[in-house]
Amino acid sequence: MSWFKRERKQYFFYEHDIHSHILPGLDDGVKRIENSVVIVKKMLELGIKRFSFTPHISFPSPMNTPEIIHEKLSELKGYLLNEGIKIEADAGAEYKVGEYMLDLIQEERIASFDGGKVLVEHSFVAPSPSFEEVVFRLQNKGYVPVLAHPERYPFYAGRLAERVRELKRRGCRIQVNLLSFVGFYGNVALHGAKELATAKLIDHVSGDIHSVKQVELLEKFLKSKEAGVMSSLIVD
């Protein structure tokens, strides 16, 4: 329960954000903790009740670890507490799928959130050759893979709903970026997000927030008529 007292909106299809880059200084998202605080405050105003922060992990880039991520989570929660704000939050990671993950899974070094969910993504150039193997290994260890923003992958365009249905049959969950619905990432993502919403194939919507500017765009979308229509099509 938050101690943040300002009036909040309520968007019941979007109370738990499971994809963001708000933890400061870990990736291409927010750099300064002061900006992290501004974003969290705004998202609380928008009715977000829970946060699962997901900084990038990829190879061969210098990799975040569960320990580093949770240290930043504690730092942000402490900073917010000093301002009288208590949030319900945990942290995992957004993994760019590759063979390196097989070792992390074997060594039990996976950063999961919300009881075992693991956020994974493809490269935007081509699907990962090891995607199916990584998903299989994650599931064998009891994790629930969540594919991030499939609407953004150009190689899914034209067969997006078909690809997503197959992934869901295999036990994957699907997360779509809310800013895709306003064309922030271009027409492929815009049409893809609408296609998945219409087909009722979306399990989670999230902000994928990297900056204060993006959360301002998110607020504008959530207050639009389009958001009201879309909300009735979200599975969970």
Our estimate of the beta-strand percent is: 5-15%
Whole-number count of domains: 1
What is the radius of gyration? 17 Å
Given this structure, which CATH class is correct? Answer: Alpha Beta
Rough outline: globular
SSE string:
EHEEHEEHEHEHEHEHH
Fill in the keyword field for this structure.
single chain; about 240 residues; alpha/beta; TIM Barrel; 6-stranded parallel sheet; 3-stranded parallel sheet; 9 strands; about 35% helix; disordered N terminus
Describe the model:
By secondary structure, the protein is α/β, with parallel strands linked by helices. It has 8 helices and 9 strands. The model is unreliable at 1-7 (pLDDT under 50).
Topology:
Elements: E1 16-17, H1 33-45, E2 50-53, E3 56-57, H2 66-82, E4 88-91, E5 94-96, H3 100-106, E6 117-121, H4 131-140, E7 144-148, H5 160-169, E8 173-177, H6 187-198, E9 204-206, H7 212-222, H8 225-231
Parallel strand pairs: 1-2, 2-4, 3-5, 5-6, 6-7, 7-8, 8-9
Helix pairs in contact: 1-7, 3-4
Structure at a glance:
With 236 residues, the protein is α/β, with parallel strands linked by helices. It has helices at residues 33-45, 66-82, 100-106, 131-140, 160-169, 187-198, 212-222, 225-231; strands at 16-17, 50-53, 56-57, 88-91, 94-96, 117-121, 144-148, 173-177, 204-206.
